[in-house]
Design brief:
By secondary structure, the chain is of the alpha+beta class. It has a single domain, classed as Nuclear Transport Factor 2, Chain: A, CATH 3.10.450.50. 47% of the residues lie in helices and 30% in strands. The protein has five helices and four strands. A four-stranded antiparallel sheet has the order 1-2-3-4. A hairpin with a 2-residue loop joins β1 and β2. 14% of the residues are buried.
């Protein structure tokens, strides 16, 4: 019984560690936290992936304030759709998501960077200019 329990724990742990090493896991976790705990907790999580960003408390507070202000105006959150994934290299990737709200969607761009083994946020941008994605 103990062997069976240990196998389950080790399997679950290895899946979790593998998920953290994929470039798209950080934005997915960000949106899960956003839905469950709110925008401040989501920003805290994603900025903590990069020690150089997480130390800038003034910028973090500004982003938290702006995101909270915008999302309060948009109404209830209804999930995400992936818009685009752009690879500059295998270590530098931008993911664009459409976050769905009652009033209108919000576009999030996550630039992810991996210098060695661990992915981290390099840049986060969000705006309501979703329609600019349509080709003319």
């Amino acid at each position: 019984m103990i062997k069976y329990f240990l196998i389950i724990i080790l399997s679950t742990l290895s899946l979790f560690l593998k998920a953290q090493n994929s470039y798209d896991s950080i934005p997915k976790i960000f949106f899960n936290i956003f839905e469950q705990k709110g925008s401040d907790a989501a920003i805290d999580y994603i900025y903590a992936t990069n020690k150089y960003i997480s130390g800038n408390l003034t910028a973090n507070l500004k982003v938290k304030t702006e995101l909270k202000k915008v999302t309060l105006m948009l109404g209830k959150y209804h999930g995400i759709d992936i818009i685009d994934t752009q690879f500059i290299s295998t270590s530098y990737i931008r993911l664009s998501y459409l976050a769905k709200f009652d009033r209108q969607p919000l576009k999030f761009n996550f630039t992810m960077y991996r210098s060695d083994k661990k992915w981290q946020l390099q840049q986060l941008r969000f705006d309501d200019k979703v329609s600019e994605g349509f080709k003319k």
